[in-house]
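Students often ask why inverse folding is considered easier than folding. One informal answer: many sequences map to the same fold, so there is more than one right answer. In these notes we will look at a single instance of the problem. The structure comes first.
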C-alpha cells in the first residue's frame, strides 16, 4: 500500500521530500500513525565514530545497545538506503516504524501530524477502511471524535471480514457499509469511485 500511495501522489500534485510535506497541503493530509520505512528518529545516545563507520556497523551497535538507547522525537525523512546515520549531524538514526497492536497506547508519528489528525477527524464525512481490523484501541479512541453524519465503507479480504470490522466499530457515529468484494474489484467496478464522489 505504501508503494502504491507513493506512486499516486503526483496525480494530486503532492510531493513528499520532508516530514512536513505530509501535512503541508491545504487539500490532502497523509497521516502515517504507525510510521514509515522512510522515517527515522535521531538517537540521542552518543554513538562513537558515526561519520567513519558504515551503516551495518552502526545498526549492529544500535541492536546491541537497544535497552539503553535514548531515542529522540526528532523525525527525519530519508530517501536513500541503507539508513543508519545522519552524516551532517554525526548522529545515528533509528527506524520510525511500528507494528500495529491492540494494546499499544502510542503512535510512531510526529506530534504535529497527530495534532492535524485530531483537527481533521471531527470534520470527516467519509471514512474508508482498507484491510484494518479496527482493533488498535488507541486509534479507535481517536475516532470517537467523529461527528455524524459520517458514511463509512469497510473493505477486507472477504464480505464476512468486512462485516466483522463494521460490527466492531458499530459504536462510532458512522453509517457503515461492508464491501462484499476485495479492494481491486471495488475499484474496477466503479463502486469505490461512487462512494468517494457521492455528495448525499
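Output (designed amino acids):
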Amino acid at each position: 500500500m505504501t508503494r502504491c500511495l507513493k506512486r499516486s501522489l503526483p496525480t494530486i500534485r503532492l510531493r513528499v521530500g520532508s516530514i512536513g510535506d505530509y501535512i503541508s497541503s491545504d487539500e490532502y493530509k497523509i497521516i502515517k500513525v504507525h510510521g514509515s520505512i522512510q522515517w527515522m528518529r535521531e538517537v540521542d545516545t552518543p554513538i562513537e565514530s558515526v561519520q567513519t563507520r558504515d551503516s551495518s556497523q552502526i545498526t549492529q551497535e544500535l541492536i546491541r545497545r537497544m535497552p539503553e538507547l535514548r531515542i529522540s522525537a526528532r523525525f527525519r525523512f530519508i530517501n536513500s538506503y541503507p539508513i543508519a546515520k545522519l552524516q551532517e549531524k554525526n548522529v545515528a538514526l533509528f527506524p520510525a516504524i511500528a507494528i500495529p497492536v491492540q494494546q499499544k497506547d502510542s503512535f510512531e508519528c510526529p506530534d504535529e501530524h497527530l495534532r492535524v489528525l485530531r483537527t481533521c477527524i471531527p470534520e470527516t464525512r467519509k471514512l474508508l477502511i482498507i484491510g484494518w481490523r479496527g482493533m488498535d484501541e488507541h486509534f479507535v479512541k481517536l475516532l470517537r471524535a467523529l461527528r455524524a453524519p459520517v458514511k463509512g465503507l469497510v473493505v477486507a479480504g472477504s464480505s464476512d471480514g468486512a462485516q466483522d470490522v463494521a460490527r466492531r466499530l458499530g459504536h462510532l457515529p458512522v453509517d457503515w457499509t461492508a464491501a462484499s468484494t476485495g479492494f481491486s474489484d471495488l475499484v474496477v467496478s466503479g463502486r469505490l469511485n461512487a462512494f468517494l464522489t457521492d455528495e448525499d
